[in-house]
Amino acid sequence: MQPAPYLTDSRVCFAHRFYQLLEIKQLKLKAEPLLLAPELSFEKPAAYTPYTIEPPDTVTLVIPGLLGNSIRSIVAPLMCARERLTVDGYQLEVAWVSGRSGCDHNAKALRRSVLENADRSGQPVNLIAYSKGCADALHMLGNHEDTHDSVASLVSYCGVVHGTPLANSVPKWLNTTLRYLPIPGESFGDGRAIADLSTVFRSKWLLDHPLPANLRLASIVATPTPDRVSRVLRASYRKLASTDKHNDSQVIDRDAMLPDSELLAVVNADHWAIALPIAERHRLLANLLVDKNEFPRDLLIQATIDHLNTPIPA
User: How far apart are alpha carbons 73 and 95 in whole angstroms?
Assistant: First the structure.
């Protein structure tokens, strides 16, 4: 896949950092490539100039996707990665929003979380926004100008930026179920959770809401090979593939890229594998339905935070 003309292609630089972390932590590479990047083969790249890992004092907020808050007791986004990186000195927190409400609703809650963390730490925060969480983050920036100075960077982590065709024709019963199904600890939705992800809505919204010029923008997308898509996601993967084979089972790669951003990585993992530690937490479910879930998420997040803590490549 070639990056769009308006993107800065940082894939090779980022991949070098990622593979260095694999070497430092003495993890074994799988047979298939973990990142799909130019000038990188299936073999582990040659040794690169090592860098000293010093966890930055910047707070990084992870923004969950659709139903993220609803299933947090079962599997929270990047749960195991956050636990490991916190031990290593990284400051990672989840900015919880409604798992089944629209972007404007969630933007208000996200604003509070961003302002509180920026005020507490005394500096702007990094945002790593997964799936629908990226659309929520965009609405926060578009609706609440007072957050602009409190955000240092926004990373689309397989984010729904330009929409997804899967949201264009959703049965009424599914919308109703998503909105009103009783879920302990979470109130009813507002009926906008899926509607806000349609390609028509997202395209118009982006045209009407240019992003702040002071933010560092980056994108991580996923285009797994068919053998790296879990059973439960194969139907949606094939449906999107009828439009574009470069998809992660929920969003097409180009639709996950923020305008004018750095393209950091194209990951060989599906939409759940990049963020949800199902294999670590629910082995039976992983064996039956989510059978391609293993991925070094902690290394990908660590490489992302470290990259954001360095100047933009020339």
Answer: 15
